[in-house]
Amino acid sequence: MRTLAYEGYVIRRENGTYVVGLEIADRYRELVLAFRGPSAVIERLRRAAAETGYSHYLGRFVGGRVAITAMAEGPRTPPLDDLVPGYDEAAHATALGKALLATMSPDQRWRFLKEYGMRAYTSATLTSPEALDSDLAAGERRGMQIEIGQFRQGLACAAVMVVNDRDPDRRVVLACALPPAELMSSAKVVRTRLLATAHHLATVLAE
């Protein structure tokens, strides 16, 4: 197990148990199936993508990192080669990542940012912990974390919680990616739809 952990095939948790790692390129399909949950999860994501036209994503902590675990593409969202199941970068620059980072204590979050950094993906990316903390607080008041052009120029993202468990590995968030103008003009509608989908997903994941 030590060798598997060193190679990235498994990840050792603090309680001594192990979860599947993100480095198993030749087991990609099995990895995605394991993390996305029941088939009803992807069915619900596809329905949300079809109804809104926006690509939808599920994310969670995997081995202490923020990772995308399931997705469904929508025709009104520009193609994003990076944002696929298994992607575990840019937590500070995506709404999905922000929603999970917001569940951490300030000390936990600062340690996370110190370890993984705050790369500037665009000129709009927040690159200081203080700026991110302020942004997360605004998202908490809004009831939805957002980013506009922080990960990709010409793209916006919004995210809400699905499951906020005491165990970080059980926390799940839902996000959608859309054109910035649509988020700015219809933020309340986007939030309402995300929350409705999140409610359905929470029910599925609890079964």
TrEMBL record:
UniProt cross-references to Gene3D superfamilies, sorted A to Z: 3.30.450.40
TM stretches of this protein: none
Residue span(s) of domain IclR-ED: 16-207
Organism: Dactylosporangium darangshiense
Name under which the protein is recorded: IclR-ED domain-containing protein
